[in-house]
Amino acid sequence: MLAWFGACSLASTAWGQSSVTLYGVVDTGVEYVSHANAKNESLFRMPAVTGLVPSRWGLRGIEDLGGGYRAIFTLESGFNMRGGDLGQGGRLFGRQAWVGLESRYGTLTFGRQYTMTYIAMLENEIMGPSIYGLASLDAYIPNARSDNTVAYKITYSGFTFGATYSFGRDSAGTGNSPGQGTCAGSVAGDFQQCHQWSAMAKYDAPNFGMDVSYDQQRGGTGAAASFFDGVASIPIINSADRDTRIQANAYVKFFGATVDAGWLGRWVEPSSQQIASVRSDLFFLGAHYQFTPSVMVDGAVYRILNKQHDTRATLGAARVLYFLSKATIAYAQLGYLSNSARARYSVSAGGAGATPPAGSNQTGVMIGVRHNF
Fold this sequence. Notes:
This protein is mainly β. It has a single domain (2-372), classed as Porin (Beta Barrel). It is 6% helix and 51% strand. It contains three helices and 19 strands. It has a 16-stranded antiparallel barrel. The protein has a two-stranded antiparallel ribbon with strand order 11-12. The radius of gyration is 21 Å and the shape is globular.
């Protein structure tokens, strides 16, 4: 830890180079979803949340403090293309807002930032935060971030280790994930209320990689846990209540293709004896292949099981990406979801308004354009 305090004295005696970068992604299109309401009617829309990825803009800064130390920050704002409104409950920098120090000893950051669950899966899960993918079955994953967070991460010889700790994961009171309610925390006399911590271990080689992560949220006033299967959210209003996710995945690259596979387990454990614990298991297998410099094809299959709710679903997703330039992609993607008799998972992670009746299957199709700047 003395190395970090050393950065303060270096900052006062050395003037280094600094830079601020403006960056962003704009992504939208038109979507069709079958069986999108209780009457099994179809829906055409521009999705509110995502296409290939959610739209955002941000500022990223770095200053060389000398002696191998750098000051860094990121401010990132999410917005919805169809209406221009802010995402993350209307927060100006709802995706990320943090500042920290970086050196050969690792990176230490403070503020609103991603948990290690998100970071662990960012490069290893093929479909990512796409409209048809993991987020259709667990909407927390692409929204895995927390307020009031201290994070540390270090990479050495292909290994990456990281951890986060949040003193209150939702200080703005707008919610971080659908169905999660609100949980401000930082309550005097109840240290654990709305706290969250996560940890990750990751290894990446030129042709393969693997990782594991652990993520636990404590309950508090206003908090809830949704399994996104049509069953009502579970209130987790006591600091002894726990919502835990553990995931493990691996990928391998060969002959221009990448294949990944993984498991995400979840346990919601209320402290009250009157509310039963609930567990789900989500398995996935995906692949992508670059056919030409301009054409890439991705696909994945997901299977989720929830014994306590008696809900199950299988989701198949595929997409074709055409690179118009280094910055612009035109794409088409398809998702098909099969629900068990009591399940109401939705094929689309594109926002509310597309939930099918219990037991109904869904097809989703989207065509769109993504541009990076």
